[in-house]
Each structure stands twice: as structure tokens, then as C-alpha cells.
Design a protein that fits this description.
PAP2/HPO, PAP2/HPO_sf, elongated, UDP-diphosphatase, mainly alpha, membrane, transmembrane helix, Vanadium-containing Chloroperoxidase, domain 1
Length: about 180
């Protein structure tokens, strides 16, 4: 465990302090801000709801909304149980480009909600892989770059988001399938 945490800190230092560029700072801050509280993904859910007739169902929107809500709740419970401090509170030279959230660091909410949304979108719209996967990865990465998460926070968040979205999607689609008449 000690080796894992040391590696985590070393990778954080590399990504947060060495692999940076002044011109990239405002881009990363913008990207992290639009994914704050899963804002970007909530917008996608609203778009899915608005275009439900064209899509043919409200189920993708309901599943996305449900997955985001479940992910927020479970992530917060885990975070307060683990209670890991954020990098600027434990690392001397962390570059902090955004306001430090008051919640604990592990797991990352941005990563959890982004990967949950990615899973749901890929489940219903496989062609979304061309933009949903890169955005989920970028949104998770920005949290390292702006200095408020360690790499394992984002990895755990991604894993948690995918698992919770898979369970939520499975529950919702199985209930919908049970209600539909069989031919």
C-alpha cells in the first residue's frame, strides 16, 4: 500500500507540476469547470429528454439522470468514509488552479460522473464512443492537472462510475423490458 501511495504521489507530481504549459492552464480550468457537478452531463440528459420522441424513448435520459444521481450519492458516501485529503493539503508544491473543494479527494466525483455518463451513453448510443470516451478521460484528467486530485482518485472514480452506471442501467432496462409485451 505504501508503494502504491508513493507511486500515486510521484505520478501526481509529474502530471501536475512537470507536464504543464501556461497556455494549457485556462483550457484545463475551463474543462474542469464545465464538468463541475456533472454540469456537462446534465445538459446531455436534458437534450436526450427534449429529443425523446426523435430518439424513440425517454429511457436513455432517465437512465442517465438516475446514474448520475446514484453516482453522486455513493461517491459522497465513499469519500467521507475514506476521508483522503486533497493534494494541496498534503503535497508541498501542488499547483492548485481552481478553488479547493471541501469534500474529500477519494474518489473523484468528476471521474465518477463522467465515466457513469459515458457508460450510459455508450449503452444506448454506441457511436457516442467517439466523443463520450475522450471527454470522460479529459474531464477526469483535468482534476489532476488543476491540482485537486491524485491519479488513484480519478481511477477509482472512473471504476466506481462505470460499475454504478452498469447496475443502474441494468435495473432500469430490465424493468422496462418486463413491462413490454412479448410478441
Amino acid at each position: 500500500m505504501k508503494t502504491l501511495l508513493q507511486t500515486d504521489r510521484q505520478v501526481f507530481q509529474l502530471l501536475n507540476q512537470e507536464w504543464t504549459a501556461g497556455w494549457l492552464d485556462p483550457v484545463m480550468v475551463f474543462l474542469t469547470m464545465i464538468s463541475e457537478h456533472a454540469f456537462f452531463w446534465w445538459v446531455i440528459a436534458v437534450v436526450l429528454f427534449v429529443f425523446r420522441r426523435k430518439i424513440g424513448s425517454v429511457i436513455p435520459a432517465v437512465t442517465l439522470i438516475s446514474s448520475l444521481a446514484v453516482t453522486f450519492l455513493i461517491r459522497n458516501a465513499v469519500a467521507f468514509l475514506v476521508d483522503r485529503p486533497r493534494p494541496p493539503l498534503s503535497e508541498e508544491n501542488a499547483r492548485q488552479l481552481v478553488e479547493l473543494p471541501i469534500s474529500p479527494s477519494f474518489p473523484s466525483t468528476h471521474a465518477a460522473t463522467s465515466f457513469a455518463a459515458m457508460y450510459v451513453l455508450l449503452y444506448f448510443f454506441p457511436s457516442a464512443r467517439y466523443w463520450a470516451i475522450p471527454l470522460a478521460v479529459i474531464f477526469a484528467y483535468t482534476r489532476l492537472y488543476v491540482g485537486v486530485h491524485f491519479p488513484t482518485d480519478s481511477l477509482a472514480g472512473a471504476f466506481l462510475g462505470i460499475i454504478l452506471a452498469a447496475v443502474t442501467t441494468g435495473v432500469i432496462t430490465s424493468r422496462v423490458n418486463k413491462k413490454q409485451p412479448h410478441a
